[in-house]
Design goal:
By secondary structure, this protein is an alpha+beta fold. 37% of the residues lie in helices and 24% in strands. It has a five-stranded mixed β-sheet with strand order 5-6-1-7-8. Strands 9-12-10-11 form a four-stranded antiparallel β-sheet. The longest helix is centred in the last third of the chain and has 22 residues. The protein is globular. 36% of the residues are buried. The C terminus is likely disordered.
Length: 359
């Protein structure tokens, strides 16, 4: 029997999106190990943006150095990133979602979105979404069905590829309880290690954790929030208000390590200038700066600093250069990134991120 009509959250996630777009452009690549990253040259320093399922079977995944991916699969087809093509394909998908009856669409990125619906049969609605997306774009997607954003997002993993899966309060702990905390949306490797230090290893452990312990470790707001995450609770509201960027960043990977202070400073200045051009277009003051540093061979550090709100370019550059001084002298760099955080407008979602119980 169908459920009574009620609100649901769908998480629509395009399967191997970037690789799938490339295969549509070159059908002869279907069924082959396809890797997309950088300029498509594994001799250069770049990372994998995506890999086809055939490539993933060899252990290749997003974020892996392209050179290592090429070693794992010597006969892989390695292609350069073509952002305009992926944006165009994504726009078609999102337009399809918005045309669905009663749908409220919150875009999360090129390849995923939340869709808020009211239905007595969310599985049937999800399958209609899959058929509509496939008919319009020739792309396949998986759909997670949930009663909160968190549950819908995690449900998608169980529906891949090309399927659907439902996670609600009724089966959350049955399905997720014995899984490691790192499988939760919003818990990365660092957080999972900090949780493990308190004996919190599984989702069930986190759902039952002492809030005072979590608050002592993560703070009075984030501590209880992590426990809520372990229970799959949180917002069920899909918000289609326009997304507002919190900040802009640029980074560059050096084909040869740099170590000289003057060279590092020049690179930081150049990146800061690019970031400031992006910020100017937003018309909002800068309230924080960040510096991403990747030392050779592959150790990444991030430095951030809040600053009084300013439109002054010179002030922002000076604050970035102050962070540059924190780079270990004499240690070779393979990557440098600069980021500027902006003041959020009053109409924007109140500073939340999608993983923190929704917007």
């Amino acid at each position: 029997m169908s459920d009574p009509p009620r609100p649901w959250v769908l998480h629509v996630d395009l399967d191997q999106f970037i690789a799938a777009v490339e295969v549509l452009r070159r059908p002869e690549l279907a069924g082959k190990p396809v890797i997309v990253g950088g300029r498509g040259d594994p001799s250069e320093r770049a990372v994998v943006s995506t890999a086809s399922y055939e490539a993933r079977e060899f252990g290749v995944g997003s974020g892996m150095p392209l050179r290592i991916a090429a070693r794992k699969i010597p006969d892989a087809i390695i292609l350069p990133v073509d952002a305009p093509a992926y944006t165009a394909a994504s726009d078609e998908v999102m337009a399809t979602l918005r045309e669905r009856p009663g749908a409220v669409v919150q875009v999360l990125g090129w390849d995923e979105a939340f869709v808020g619906i009211t239905s007595d049969d969310p599985e049937a609605y999800a399958q209609d979404v899959q058929r509509a997306v496939l008919a319009r774009t020739s792309l396949h997607c998986s759909v997670g069905i949930g009663d909160t954003l968190v549950r819908a997002k995690n449900a998608t993993d169980f529906g891949k590829p090309r399927g659907t899966f439902r996670l609600t309060a009724d089966n959350w702990l049955e399905v997720m309880g014995q899984r490691p905390t790192i499988e939760l949306w919003g818990v990365g490797s660092k957080i999972s290690r900090r949780l493990a230090a308190h004996g919190i290893v599984t989702v069930d452990d986190l759902a039952r954790a002492d809030e005072s312990v979590l608050a002592a470790e993560f703070g009075p707001k984030m501590g209880p929030w992590y426990r809520q995450l372990g229970r799959g609770d949180g917002s069920a509201v899909v918000d289609d208000s326009p997304w507002v960027a919190r900040g802009h960043g640029r980074e560059t990977t050096f084909q040869q390590n740099i170590v000289e202070p003057a060279e590092i400073e020049n690179a930081a200045r150049e990146l800061a200038a690019q970031v400031l051009e992006d910020v100017v277009a937003e018309g909002r003051p800068v309230v924080g700066v960040g510096l991403k540093v990747r030392y050779a061979p592959f150790l990444t550090k991030t430095f951030v600093h809040k600053i009084p709100a300013t439109f002054d370019r010179g002030t922002v550059v000076a604050e970035v250069l102050a962070l540059v001084e924190r780079i270990e002298p004499g240690r070779p760099l393979r990557l440098l990134g600069v980021r500027a955080e902006m003041e959020m407008p009053d109409h924007a979602r109140k500073g939340h991120t999608p993983t923190r119980s929704g917007w």
